[in-house]
């Protein structure tokens, strides 16, 4: 049973999760016989939200036959600089060092808060433990959100927003729509478990974060809406997000967003609908973060200064 179930039935989310599970089984079968070790998928696959046109962005974590994995899974156009590659967890864990560039940070954060294993689930879990250990270090304190990881989640959100704006006019409407919805859900899903650490002792922080980050981001949001008695705001948020997934799963409407540039988007009805759904998602999350205690106090204390 998912934490989302308490908020009602969301057909698009349910269908996307079913589609993701079938796809993961398919990819796992394709990797049979390949020295794959641990292969994870990111993006909509990592969120368990596969829709029409979703790319299968993968990373091979640690040792393995990267050429064999690429032969079986392919390489998504335009994403190879970040995905479809072999990475070393020790390199990902060099947080804030000179070599911790945008590429390293992006891979690290997406592995931690938006990934699902195709093969090697225990290695995937261990990779997340290693990254959490690198962030937590000596920062394990009773009833305190870990600032090091919190700051990097915020840094990644700002980096993502800047990069989306800096990519120019091509697919601007689709990127903007995703920033308001799926990217916002990803950010909130990375942030809320950190604020939840306010409720636990130091020895429980790593276990709590590992459990949460192994869940889809929407489930993390559902837990928070329920825990802070914001069920109505949660239901509105998930209804809007469900409708947005339906829009993405419609080839005609998704194609329309892909074709729209910044100047055309202002008067386009499909973009207007996507923007409205993004506002509803944002309003629900703002109600949770700024109208419920102790979240409002924690946001002021840890996210403002």
Mass-distribution shape: globular
List the uncertain runs.
none
Described by strand count, sense and barrel closure, the largest sheet is:
4 strands, mixed
- Helical stretch tally: 16
Describe this structure in words.
The protein is mostly helical. It has one domain. The protein contains 16 helices and four strands. It has helices at residues 11-30, 43-46, 66-73, 89-92, 102-113, 121-136, 147-166, 172-180, 182-196, 205-213, 217-227, 231-248, 251-259, 262-265, 269-291, 295-304, and strands at residues 39-41, 58-61, 85-87, 116-119. The chain has a four-stranded mixed sheet, sandwiched between helices. α3 links the parallel β2 (58-61) and β3. α8 (172-180) packs across α13 (251-259) and α12 runs antiparallel to α15. The longest helix is centred in the last third of the chain and has 23 residues, at 269-291.
């Amino acid at each position: 049973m998912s934490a989302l179930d308490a908020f009602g039935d969301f057909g698009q989310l349910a269908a996307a999760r079913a589609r993701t599970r079938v796809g993961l089984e398919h990819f796992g079968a394709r990797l049979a016989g390949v020295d794959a070790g641990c292969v994870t998928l990111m993006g909509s696959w990592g969120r368990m939200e596969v829709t029409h046109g979703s790319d299968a962005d993968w990373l091979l974590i640690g040792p393995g036959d990267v050429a064999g994995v690429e032969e079986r899974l392919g390489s998504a156009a335009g994403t190879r600089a970040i995905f479809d590659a072999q990475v070393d967890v020790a390199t990902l864990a060099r947080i804030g060092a000179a070599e911790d560039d945008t590429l390293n940070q992006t891979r690290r954060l997406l592995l931690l808060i938006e990934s699902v294993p195709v093969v090697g689930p225990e290695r995937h879990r261990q990779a997340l433990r290693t990254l959490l250990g690198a962030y937590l270090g000596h920062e394990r304190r009773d009833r305190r959100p870990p600032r090091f990881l919190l700051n990097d989640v915020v840094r990644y959100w700002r980096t993502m927003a800047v990069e989306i704006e800096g990519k120019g006019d091509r697919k601007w409407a689709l990127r903007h729509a995703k920033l308001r919805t799926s990217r916002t859900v990803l950010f909130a899903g990375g942030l809320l478990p950190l604020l939840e650490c306010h409720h636990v002792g130091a020895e429980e922080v790593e276990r709590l974060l590992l459990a949460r980050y192994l869940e889809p981001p929407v489930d993390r949001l559902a837990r928070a809406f329920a825990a802070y008695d914001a069920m109505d705001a949660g239901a509105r948020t998930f209804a809007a997000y469900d409708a947005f997934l339906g829009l993405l799963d419609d080839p005609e409407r998704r194609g329309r967003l892909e074709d729209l540039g910044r100047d055309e988007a202002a008067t386009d009805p499909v973009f207007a609908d996507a923007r409205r759904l993004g506002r509803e998602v944002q309003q629900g999350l703002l109600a949770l973060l700024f109208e419920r205690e102790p979240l409002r106090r924690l946001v002021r204390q840890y996210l403002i200064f």
